[in-house]
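Page header: ASSEMBLY MODEL / two components / 916 residues total.
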Amino acid sequence: MKFTYPVTKKKYGEFLKDLENALLNQFESYEIYRKLCKFRGIEEKDLEKIVHNGELWYIPSIPASFFKIRTPEGKRNDLVENLANKKKPGEYSVSSSTSGNPSYVYRTSEDEEVSFRSYKEAFSKAPDTDIGLMFCPELEFMEYVSKGRLEKIDDKEMLMYALIGARAAAEKVREKFYMLKLRSKPKLVYEVVRSKLTGSSFTPLYFSKNDFLTGLLKAEEEGKSILLGGSVLVMYPAVLELKKAGKKFKLDDRVYVITGAGGWDGVKGNTRWKPINKSQFVRDLSEVFDIPPEEAERRFIDNYGTTEDGMSHSGYFSKKLGDFIFEVAEGMKLYLLKPNSPLKNPEVIKNPDEPGIPLFISPYGKEGHAGVAIEQGDLIEAISFNDDYSVRKFTGVRRATDRDRGHSCAFGMIKDVRI
Amino acid sequence: MKSTKIEIHESFTDPVIDTYESRKVGDLYVELPVYKRGNIEHVVETVRRNAEKYYKDVGDVKAFGVLQSALEKWSDRNYEKRRTAVPLLSQVTGFSEENLEIFGLDSLTEFDVKEMENIKYLVKELLQTKKYDKFHPVENKGYIRAYGQPKIKKHREPEIITHILAGNVVGPPWLSVALGPAGKSGQIIKLPSEDISMLYFLDTLGEIDSEFRKTIAIGYYPGGAKDVEEVLFKYSDIVNAMGSDETIMAVEKELKRANKKAVLFSHPNKIGAAIIWPGYEAPEIGELVAWGSSAMDTNACFSPMNIYIQKDKIEKFAKYVAEHLDKIAKFIPPKKSLPVAISVRKYKLETLRRKLTDEDVKIIEDINGEWTVIVDKSNPYLTPTCQERTIVLKPFNDPKDVIKYLEPLGKHLQTIGLAIEEKELIKYSDKLGQIGVTNIHVPGAEYVLKGWEPHDGIFPSVEIELSDNLRWLAVNFQDPDEEMGKALERKRRYVPR
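Prediction written out in full:
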């Protein structure tokens, strides 16, 4: 059964029908999902009831951590394959792995198409531009990594999930400048192997200052529109260097900034920097690129998406909040669960400002894996809700971490040892 | 530009330190004495001089008396400072007021400072007569014995003892101050970033004897601040450090660099468990297990995280424990913070992952997320949990098997809550001692510390004078049934059956 991502808005009833079918399909196809339902005391007929009652937060969800390739003890996580419907042709989407333990989500080409369209939709908050400064690796590099450098779990192909968003972004601009360039290939292979052996965080990429300045000057001198897109951890240090050097570019109303893939806490994949204050980021870029303060809320866009839920949620910057306000992606429902609510009987958050664990529900793009309902390991705050307590707009996205719990001479799970 | 004025909820002073900073600790803004590169040398020298004078003029007996009086004051719920401090400490640490009152402070009533000092005579005698490797009764209170090969090394008299405190529990860390009188030494205390309770306790010491108080400095510096530690460690004869393995390793490294002669008392990550001997799977023992696990929300080094029980009794016993955890949580609420909720949720999700991959695991959870009981028949080996009243029941066919289940984490073992027949006590305790256990209590009394017990295998009052290279074990009772009866009575004073 195929579920096509709605290009035009589907009616709520149609969404629910698609959801019911996808859920029943998931129940039938995955033993692991049936086990999860059993743990929750939910039978197949209850799934229909939950959908009919519109209390979608009761849908048993797969925690995003179940897609991690390794268990906390460092063993191979068998669930990854159990959550994949490998009877269908497809490949694994692999996350950027900030934790060093990437997620592997099996997707059909239709699933990838759904994600691709979702990213395109998310990026449509900014118009297409003449020039694009892409603060990410060249597509060629991501394809190269996808083909051979990721840890294989079976005979299926793999794809860096970031490539889907990067491809969608590439379609927005006419002339592209990639900021992270690949070193020469023979050297690259050597370096990658060496970094694997030594466990170093070597990256076979370098930041191309030349492309950075060329793109900016071209936009300034030729009066072309320009998009700065990609990882804030690559973009911000480069812009700060310009600021430090006193350089400014008269880009007037021709510049847009789209960030994505997190990194605001200073960590993304192998990249480590420092936590970034979003308001300061907007101020600094506005100063260097001559964006009037009143335009900031229109020209700075961030997007939030995860490998596991496969959709992109985008939002404009809010000066008042000092953060981005995201809209939930088309074709998806987002609920916030109370972190202390029981696994068997989750409670939904009904008030704004109360941080909750995001529960993403969508029937679209789930042909290849049991991801109709995904519990993500982040924290989010709702700005507004729909009548069914699903979130309409949200902010305050951050990793759900127990880091602030304090140090202890007692032994916590962080030191888990299993024999 | 608007200036934001931070409201300071509490200010503390120190007679020796003249530098102060405001810091957010938990939910409170407090003004604290701080150690800096610029003041540390002066602080150490002043404390050293004050201690030298105090112990020459007044003596250690008086100092022990001051300490005991302060503990007695804090054991009294009507003590004004305690009444003021508890609500604030609750905001700082996240522990509920009831938790702090019962497990952190009321338990101090049973701590006798004199015992801390007196045990050294018995230990020294056992070392001298080479009888340390047999269980020896401590009056009618319990037993001690040691493991390992003795290698006696005398220390020079310590002039300065530095304490690096951990912030996981309130109350027991205060007992560290007894090292000062034991060594007639000046003391420098480094506060953890999560707790300020020691400041209150030292205020009380100052109220009782301001001159004794001047032998101690207490302040904060960010852990690992090289510029401070370099000087502090250079002048320290003993560093008594509590914290995670990483913290202790960092302290050890810096200490080796700064002062090769200094002695380190290291108290790294610790894990506890309870063992229920066949025949002891009664509801009352479940009640005691729940009580012991609720103490300090399982955050303490003495907290039992895994409970071992005979395989065919495990399901029923899990119900008893869950029932009592639930009841206790109504009287003594657990921490409610977001990081705690996240930590517990992550742990439960990971347990769920294991359950779904056909492992024999059961999750019993509270509807408000206040406690969790996991029955794990799949992996009998000792495993840490996320703490926070989350415990794992594990099966055995024969209690002897538990020894091999604990052994892999031997160097991290500390307290075992043991429900056992008296005739088996010594033999089984010996097996536990051999693998690294240092303290044996009955279930539900793991948090009740006695002055004569070792801390992580050493007797601080002895270790101040000499290192014996041994790991000491204390069984802190003699008659298990009687002791469990006492523990049950103690528990029911607060929470009825």
